[in-house]
Amino acid sequence: MKIELLGGYTKDELESRIKNVASAGKLSRFPGNVFEVAETCDDYEKNIKLIKRIIGMGHKSIIEHDYIVMALCDISPIVEQTIIGNRLTSFTVKSRREVDFRNVNFYIPEFRDKNMNIHRNNKELKEKYITHMKYLFNTYGDIVDHGINVEDARFILPYCFNSNLIMGLDAREFEKLTVSLVSGSLSKISELKELGNHFLDIIQNYIPYLYDSTKNEIEKTSDNSNFEYLENISSRPEISIIDKPLLISHTPDPDNVILNSSVMYYYQCSKEKAINIISDAENKDTNFKANLMNIILHKEERRELEQVQFTFQIPISLSILTHLTRHRMHSLLIPEFTPMWDLNNHVTPATILANKECLDLFDTAYTKNIQMFEEFKKQDILEQDLIYFYLGAQMLNVITTLNARTAQWICRLRCCNKAQWQIRNIAKEIAKQIKEVSPLLGKGLGATCTTDLICNEGKESCGLINKILESNNK
């Protein structure tokens, strides 16, 4: 693992960043306009003291003006998913849909026992682990060599392979993430704790006003499980993966809630008055509701769409999880990496199912991976060190609540024929089920070629837009 700041760390850059934060801290209580206040913040040491005093009082919003960008090299998807799940970070990840991963290295944990001490058989376990992971990577390569695209071959990749990303976040979010990695429940995963310690070093050296605060937060944070009460009062059922996305709750009468909200805020009237206005409008134009919804769906802000929510349970593979996680404006509940999920729950891409040689390679590798996992598990290894036996094909259920605006955005991107097949099927099912309870809204959910008669893919378009336009012109 290698972490480097991308700018902001030279003496001049550091002093400039600190000045911005100090200016924000002074602005609300000192006389003068923003430029005059900024001019007074020309002493680096005084700026540090001022910022420390303000954040010590709990006013940490000022450090959101300090933004850090860094490169993370040779991290596993475990780290990647953890970062992407932190919704206030920005990130760019190396694509597994486009890049052949057969020759990348992978993370090798120091295996620990249940007491978090180095396992007595650590050396032998690591040798066996390395041999097994190389076998899985070779299987991935064999599947690619048999003509399967890397997008589908990656489902056999173990979640220990090295990836790379660029991430950016403000100092307030950086502190929260660092604390959770160093001392929260995630700290039991050694790779994540290592990442947290790298972050702590960056804070100490390049965000000097934040180090004491971060250390204090680390000391107050416990790594205990959040589910001890539940585990003590209820037995764990067998994990069952649902067949398709399931709408489990939603705002009642969503179409009318959206339309009423639009009229209420525009005319500044009551709900009752809005209902009467819409009723009168329908008498003049029977398509009024559909037309008004269409206008809302194509507005710049579309805030009315945020007034209704839909909660789904969604079956998804580890390979595709980040495709959903990266849409930040929804409330996504993803199972923690431990307790371990059922490794038997997995999906096999259709391209592999259609190729007998590849299917044999895939099934054999998947079976051997479970056998190796069980062998390691019998040696009482800490579960947090076994999570690297998860494969891309591993299936899990997630829960999310999203408003109609987010649903529209996800469907615009993920219903496209160029989207990865699993996330595309998920998005289409979400659109279908929302349409059943909200038909007017549902007309605006889908790929842009079907909802807006436009395609932004240019030369890489699948061509469907041309067929739709030709059909409309007949």
Structure commentary:
Among the domains are: 2-73 and 164-227, no CATH class; 252-306, no CATH class; 450-474, no CATH class. Helices cover 50% and strands 11% of the residues. It has helices spanning 11-27, 34-39, 44-56, 77-84, 122-145, 150-153, 171-183, 190-206, 211-220, 228-233, 254-267, 271-284, 288-297, 318-325, 350-353, 356-377, 404-414, 421-437, 439-442, 448-451, 464-473; strands at 2-5, 67-75, 90-93, 163-170, 246-250, 309-317, 331-333, 395-403. α5 (122-145) packs antiparallel against α16 and α11 packs across α13. The longest helix has 24 residues, at 122-145. The N and C termini lie far apart (59 Å).
Content-based structural category: alpha+beta
Kindly report the average pLDDT value. 93
Report the total helices: 21
Low-confidence stretches: none
- Global geometry: globular
Q: Order of SSEs, N→C?
A: EHHHEHEHHEHHHHEHHHEHEHHEHHHHH
Q: How much helix is in the residues?
A: 40-55%
Using only C-alpha atoms, the radius of gyration works out to 26 Å
Largest sheet composition: 4 strands, antiparallel
Query: What is the rounded distance between the termini?
Result: 59 Å
Give the beta-strand count.
Answer: 8
